[in-house]
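User: two proteins, same treatment. go.

Assistant:
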Amino acid sequence: MNLPEGLRARLAALYPGAQIRRVTALRNDESAGGEMKALGYARLLRIETTAGTVVFRTLRPDEFGHDRRADRVENMVLAYDTFAKIPHHVAAVDVGMIRNDGMLLPLGETGEPYLITTWTEGSLYADDLRRVAAGVATDQDLARAETLARVLLEIHAQPGTQPAAYTRAIRDLLGLGESIFGMVDSYDAETVPPARLRAIEEACLAWRWKLRGNDHRLRRTHGDFHPFNIVFGERGVSLLDASRGIEGDPADDVAALSINYLFFATNQTDWRTGLGALWSRFWSVYLAGDRVDVCAAIAPFFAWRALVIASPKWYPHMSAADRDRILRFAERALAADRFDPSFGAEAMA
């Protein structure tokens, strides 16, 4: 693949003397399989050079809060500012604009934003979950679930720095184009009745008022801690795409990962020996070190992730019965005073 001259020039400035060996276009989820995840926000190129391998990304406009150029600029700059603050995360190398004539420049001129990050070798955690869904959990699978619980405890051990960041995190949970309101707007009436979506949305609004003012819960967070952003390799865990300012409620990250044990298990025959075992191990390890009582606040975060998973635009091949199962899990969490991890087993019964 031939690189545009502007990108070649920028790489030469970043890595003087380096030679480009190979360029590969990547799907947003390279190994997840198109039959599962139909949407992705980014356009990605893997660029191998004699100085190392990097990923060049741009964002496509979409209805989930990225329709304005300013939205896409914000996303890229926030990534550049925050990736280094998350343990185990890939590094952001450069951020700037692609000028209309194809040249890459620092931010400020007309064009689209880009981001360059380091590359990490390994396999997506989503691949593990897909394999377990087809069989049983191994000792390594259990160990990895425990590792991820401990990674989150490490991330969440750092308190937030600005109390107002908690208020914004809870507001953004509902109001962003890629969060609860935006996901609800993406549904059609044939997939899920509008009355059901409105009830979920109103329950989440009630939870906003329960959580509002609880800035003592503010911690460093990843913001998008799901299996497609987690890589296991020879050097352990690497993380991708920290999001939404990396400060908020730890329940955000716990929900983002744990609901995927339910999602990948929708077609599994034995929850107890498969993904249910990973669910149990993850929860037991995380709760043993939990500093803020995530079960008291996790319901609206589960609702958000359930709306993503059940979305016909994100996962068009999910059956109507499985969509209903995931949404019922979220509705039960929203209706309870606090979340009980046993809800997971009951949802899969």
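Protein 2:
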Amino acid sequence: MLEYFMHVTIETLWKQGKNKSEISQITGHDWKTVSKVIKAIKNGNYPIKKPHCKRLDNCREQILALIEQDLTGVRIFEELQRAGIYVSYSATKRYIADIKKREDVCIRFHTKPGEEAQVDFGYVGMTLDNNGKLRKTWVFNMRLSYSRLDYYEKVFDQKVETFIRCHINAFNFFGGIPEYVKIDNLKAAILEANFYETIYQSMYKQFADYYAFKPLPCRVRKPQEKGKVEAGIKYVKNNFFLGRKFSSSEDVDKQLKIWLVNTCNARIHGTTRKVPQEVFDTEEKSKLIKLPEREFDMPKIGTRTVYNDCHVYIEYNYYSVPFEYVGKKVNVEVYNKIIKILFEGRQIALHVRNRGTGEFITDENHYPKFKCYMSTNYQEEYQTKMNQIGDFAGKLFLLLVSKHPRDWNRTAQGILSLTKEFANEVVNLACKRALIFDITQYSIIKNICKNGTYNLPAEVL
């Protein structure tokens, strides 16, 4: 600090036209020191002024909390005086102004009762599951922004199903739904972190529509927009998980539930200076959206690759998909009674969920037309064409279908092609001879036409 002021003094005198000797005499510094400082000034080298610790730095967090309550400088000064911090009003005012200039400080958003909740996950380390295995553990927090009433739940993953299930449990705990749910840009809820054109996971969007709330994503790199839930995560880590021992997953859930009701929501909140449960009961509960009569039918979701037979494997059964998606990855949503199959967010198949195993649930329209071996319309079309050749050809077609239910079409196509080379009557008589000897091979029927054996007695092949 002394070096800084020495430079300032010498620079001021030098700019006033004093020479090095005069400056040395005025300041008492050695002539060589003065010369060195002037040379540094000419080269643009200035010593950095070291910051000094301000008296109010020790209570900075407290002042931030008061600023976020939109209190005026006078009110903040009064609160500091009440807390036993005796600093002049002018010093307090300067300190507040300095804080508000900083880019990393955001004034807290204020909401109305029932207007908003904030949600997030927080990692809390490894805990035991019910089988005695250590697993990575997160805590889910939904905090009502007005009353600061919290809901916490321990989870072992951050899948979209888990995210939605935690929402449902939180809504049931509150007995209602806020108008907005502010979320961080979690992969579970948002596919693309774009504040103006957010692409939601279709599942989360369906869920939000069903419960009539509006998801409100935080802008990227703006975590202060959900500062309340950030504080909630920090609070549960430090005041519940830190230093506690748990014997199982069930034990964590039991202790967390007791702590949530008896400690967390019953305490005097550090910012509002009110009890969250009391504020919720008297001011916010009646403002929440009513819960739906039936809980959201949350599906199991996943991805599958479509097999060459136009089916995907789901819960030990096979469900058909339009043939153009063979080899592609599709999303599946398994509901209580139905199964949806989607490609790039668009539904491409819908089936009734089969409770058995090893069964094929097939929509014949999903096959290409030339592959529809079992299609009634396709079969009737070929039967009509065979009947047009003659009665015996029509009867042979029925024999083909009964003996070769999955690949009759190739033989039928071959017999129909014979009419390009032979008269219908010849092909019909060849079919008659084939019927006598229970023959369905196209090659033999073709040879009967070529060899003229269609007119031979029945006992001669």
